[in-house]
């Protein structure tokens, strides 16, 4: 039985199959399907990593300033690793890593790694909404530069 993700990939891949009309279209169809799966895993990795960052920020806002001086190191580290939101953020990072390993097993690292910078766009948008962070023209220009760079790397 196919998962929902496989059904969606099959539907999207069918559009590409009919564009490939030479005698090797079957193998090209599978190649396109695998590429789409890789990009889907990449998107999940980016989304989970950004979500983990947002949870960590939410946690430290509620915890206050983190002091890592020698006198408070052990209580601070204990406080960090007993915080449920931090643990959930770390779980999302770990899951993101699993998807990431799948991505780099099939995609060039020089293409895949810069794509992770798309998480900056997600972090920027959600930081404005959730944490009321400031929007500046320089931040927007920087994000547009990142988007253009990722677009060019995937051409």
How would you describe the overall organization of this protein?
The protein has 155 residues and is mostly helical. Helices cover 79% and strands 0% of the residues. It has one domain. Helix 1 crosses helix 2 (25-63) and helix 2 runs parallel beside helix 6 (118-131). The protein is globular. Residues 14-23 have low confidence and may be disordered.
Provide the helix percentage: over 70%
Average predicted confidence as pLDDT: 86
| Total beta-strand segments | 0
Strand percentage? under 5%
Number of helices: 7
Shape: globular
Structural class, from secondary structure content? mainly alpha
Count of separate structural domains? 1
Radius of gyration of CA atoms, rounded to a whole number: 20 Å
* Poorly predicted spans: 14-23
* End-to-end gap: 35 Å
Characterize the largest beta sheet: strand count, sense, and whether it forms a barrel. Answer: none
Would you list the SSEs in sequence order as H and E?
HHHHHHH
Outline of the structure:
The chain is an all-alpha fold and 155 residues long. Helices cover 79% and strands 0% of the residues.
Labels describing this entry:
155 residues; mainly alpha; 7 helices; globular
Helix and strand layout, with pairings?
Blueprint: H1 4-17, H2 25-63, H3 73-81, H4 84-106, H5 109-115, H6 118-131, H7 137-153
Helix pairs in contact: 1-2, 2-4, 2-6
């Amino acid at each position: 039985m196919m998962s929902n993700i496989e059904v969606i990939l099959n539907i999207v891949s069918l559009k590409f199959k009919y564009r490939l009309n030479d005698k090797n279209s079957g193998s090209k169809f599978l190649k396109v399907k695998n590429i789409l799966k890789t990009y889907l895993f990449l998107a999940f990795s980016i989304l989970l990593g950004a979500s983990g960052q947002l949870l960590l920020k939410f946690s430290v806002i509620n915890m206050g300033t983190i002091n890592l001086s020698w006198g408070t190191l052990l209580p601070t580290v204990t406080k960090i690793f007993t915080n449920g939101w931090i643990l959930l953020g770390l779980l999302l990072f770990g899951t993101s890593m699993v998807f990431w390993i799948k991505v780099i097993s099939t995609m060039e690292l020089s293409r895949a790694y810069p794509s992770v910078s798309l998480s900056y766009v997600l972090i920027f948008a959600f930081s404005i909404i959730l944490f009321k962070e400031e929007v500046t023209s320089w931040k927007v220009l920087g994000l547009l530069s990142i988007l253009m760079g990722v677009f060019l790397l995937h051409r």
